[in-house]
Amino acid sequence: xxxxxxxxxxxxxxxxxxxxxxxxxxxxxxxxxxxxxxxxxxxxxxxxxxxxxxxxxxxxxxxxxxxxxxxxxxxxxxxxxxxxxxxxxxxxxxxxxxxxxxxxxxxxxxxxxxxxxxxxxxxxxxxxxxxxxxxxxxxxxxxxxxxxxxxxxxxxxxxxxxxxxxxxxxxxxxxxxxxxxxxxxxxxxxxxxxxxxxxxxxxxxxxxxxxxxxxxxxxxxxxxxxxxxxxxxxxxxxxxxxxxxxxxxxxxxxxxxxxxxxxxxxxxxxxxxxxxxxxxxxxxxxxxxxxxxxxxxxxxxxxxxxxxxxxxxxxxxxxxxxxxxxxxxxxxxxxxxxxxxxxxxxxxxxxxxxxxxxxxxxxx
Length: 364
What we know:
Keywords: Methyltransferase, S-adenosyl-L-methionine, Transferase
Number of helices: 15
Strand content: 5-15%
Shape: elongated
Pfam family, one: Dimerisation2-like_dom
Domain BVU-1015-like N-terminal dimerisation-like: 22-93
CATH topology of the largest domain: Rossmann fold
CATH architecture of the largest domain: 3-Layer(aba) Sandwich
InterPro entries: BVU_1015-like_N, COMT-like, COMT_C, SAM-dependent_MTases_sf, WH-like_DNA-bd_sf, WH_DNA-bd_sf
Number of strands: 9
CATH superfamily of the largest domain: Vaccinia Virus protein VP39
Helix content: 40-55%
GO molecular function, one term: methyltransferase activity
Structural class: alpha/beta
Order of helices and strands: HHHHHHEEHHHHEHEHEEHEHHEE
């Protein structure tokens, strides 16, 4: 199994003393409470207060407009969680390094909102999802076969957090990705799973000669047209509505494709479905077409916390999204590419928030 250098150090041998390991076990056992306490410490601005000044329990209660009892419960729990510290001489609390990251790290804030608004209630059904291969927790949000059919109808906060999560991770990589994809000046680009058209807009802005076709579900294309309407270059963006879960649905073949682009797309499908989609991509490719697959591959992360996040996000796919996909290991993705009659030409790592781009061509 391939592992980046930092992951190999962390995951191939025991690193915790027994007492620390025991504490982590208890931390896991109380995980739901730890999460909700910490979320409220952020939502009610308490950690932000403690970042700026040391405060007593009574002062926190007054500033946050909560009871002294509520402030005491939150602060004492946060002290043992590790997000605040106490000055023994003055009984005043202040923020810790961990608390600072909860307040200031954009990725942590996006992840927290995503887990609360999209995942939290549904995770009660994770056991059923794993056993049955279906998104058992999705019913907490709505009645759809997968989350993708329901994106336009999600509850307001869930929809807001879902798109914030999705855009945060993809957008951070776009600048570097554009340089890679447009190195050979493509004129035609198929964006498979183009969602709301953010990548397509970046493409037509980056190169005035490129035409983009977004392939996605019809309801997603409706959202895309709303988001791109009136934007510069939108006249060079067209939509092709289809459901790629139906293996009889081919990718568009009405023109030669210089580039086929799949960003944060294949992680939405099972291994069998990925091979089917890649075979359909191969069917509309020629020897000059290049397929670029951008994914957050958990094994190729520069920093270990990113691998932790990605392997946890896999369970969102299991329980909420579709029941059978995940954040893949690069060994698995490379194997599936080969099964589809394609080969890896090059891999670019460490783009944005931990993305990799796998450049793929047809086997000769």
